Amino acid sequence: MRKQLYFWAALLWAGTIAFFCLVQLNNVPMGTVSNLDKLVHAFFHFVLTFFCFLFLKSRANNPNSFLPLIASFLFSVFFGIGIEIAQELFTKTRHAEVFDVLANLSGATLTVVMVLLFGLNTKLR
Hints:
0% strand, transmembrane, transmembrane helix, 125 residues, membrane, 74% helix, single chain, mainly alpha
């Protein structure tokens, strides 16, 4: 049951990221925080990496394996790069930005740091 929950959470979150990154959001007030969109990108990929990690960890045969963490990190980073490419190729109002990719990378990296710091790689099963 947990495996399915983690899978659907990761899939739904990836869909949410794709939706918000590919639709026109010109009329949405962003407030006064500079680079708020970069914080949003980092948050999106922090959560995506964590959900993917939970799913892959629940399926791992070896509870001490780092493969679920590495695979989750790589998936999140390449998914973010793919979204940036899609923005450039398929939308007229959105454009690919290197700083968005760096924000995505930051969010994914924060998940890896959190998992390692709190020992979640070995505690979760």
